[in-house]
Amino acid sequence: MTDVKLQTLLELEKIENSLYRGQSWDLGFRALFGGQVMGQALAAAQRTLPDGRLTHSFHSYFLLPGDANYPVLYDVENVRDGRSFSTRRVKAIQNGKNIFYLTASFQQPEPGLEHQFAEMPNVPPPEEVESDLSFFEKTIDQISERMREAISYHKPLDIRTVQTIDPMKPVKTEPRRYIWMRAQEVITGGINMNQAMLAYASDYHFLATSLQPHGISVRNKQLRMATIDHAMWFHHPFSFDEWLLYAAESPFSGGARGLVRGQFFNQQGVLVASTMQEGLMRKVEV
Predict the structure, then answer these.
(1) 227 included as an active-site residue
(2) Facing residues of 20 across strands?
(3) Mean pLDDT score of the chain, rounded to an integer?
(4) Among candidates 62, 64, 55, which has minimal Cα distance to 86?
């Protein structure tokens, strides 16, 4: 498999009005990648909008693990179309069960008061950072056969973690992570497709930031991790075939849960999107 396109994954099949079907990729995780469900659900909601309205935020809950062996149905409810805002609620269905809910708000662009009280971290440029895939390909003999088979599905994104974290040798570090990322393909579909792609990418390496102060690897057989909820806000238009810096940090973990927050900056230092996520982080006996 040499030519996997992320945009193809997000171009859903229309079954009937407000009902769409998305194919699934097996990224080698225990369950269906949460970013896929978020990106496809947002793409489904976007298909039902009046012309010109753009996503400014969404809030979502993961209810059941998804199965990467099957497609996902997306049922879009038109909650409201106002003069300048629209609201949509999306239900993701697999095997007859609701696995995910997303509520999104969209706005007709308009001018307003502007400020940015967020500073882009001073990190090496992406050209000086090794890609995550290159790092994993060097240690391919240490990863599972399923993960080896799934590598092609990770290639649509060029992801470069500034401070390489070796999952085979975890050490305790502060709960902060900087990641350069961009799509490997030329994106068509305008701002909507760029937003759906970033929603997909925003789940990469995010919750794992909460593990860093504990020196625990995501591959630890005693660890059970799963996203509970994920929220995202879009501030400025961006092109995801250009580099964005994902600055993630975890202000809290406890009660078998971890909380992470993130900021996406373009290379000019403009804050283009923000994220928040809480997830399960449970250690079990094996």
Answers:
(1) yes
(2) 14, 74
(3) 93
(4) 55
Helix (H, G, I), strand (E, B) or coil at 266: strand
Q: What are 220's two structure tokens?
A: 């630890």
Q: In this structure, what token pair is assigned to residue 108?
A: 């007709």
Could you tell me where the beta strands, DSSP code E, fall in the chain? 13-16, 19-22, 54-62, 72-81, 85-94, 97-107, 157-161, 176-183, 223-234, 244-254, 257-266, 271-283
> Residue 89 is encoded by which pair of tokens?
């609620």
- Catalytic hit among 203, 209, 212, 263: 203
pLDDT band of residue 139 (cuts 50, 70, 90) is: low
Catalytic site includes residue 275: no
**What SS3 class is residue 208?**
helix
Fold for the domain defined by 6-109+126-283? Porin (2.40.160)
At residue 146, what are phi and psi to the nearest 5 degrees? -60, -40
Active site residue 277: yes
| Domain map (residue ranges) of the chain | 6-109+126-283
Report the predicted TM-score, pTM, of the whole model to 2 decimal places.
0.94
CA distances in angstroms from 58 to 65, 87, 210, listed in the order given: 20, 10, 22
**Residue 20 pLDDT class (50, 70, 90 cuts):** very high
Q: Is pLDDT at 165 greater than 70 in this prediction?
A: no
| Section 62-67 average pLDDT | 97
User: Could you say which of 36, 103, 161, 277 is catalytic?
Assistant: 277
CB-CB neighbours of 84 under 10 Å: 11
Please state, in angstroms and rounded to a whole number, the distance separating the CA atoms of residues 264 and 162: 14
Q: What is residue 90's DSSP assignment? A: E
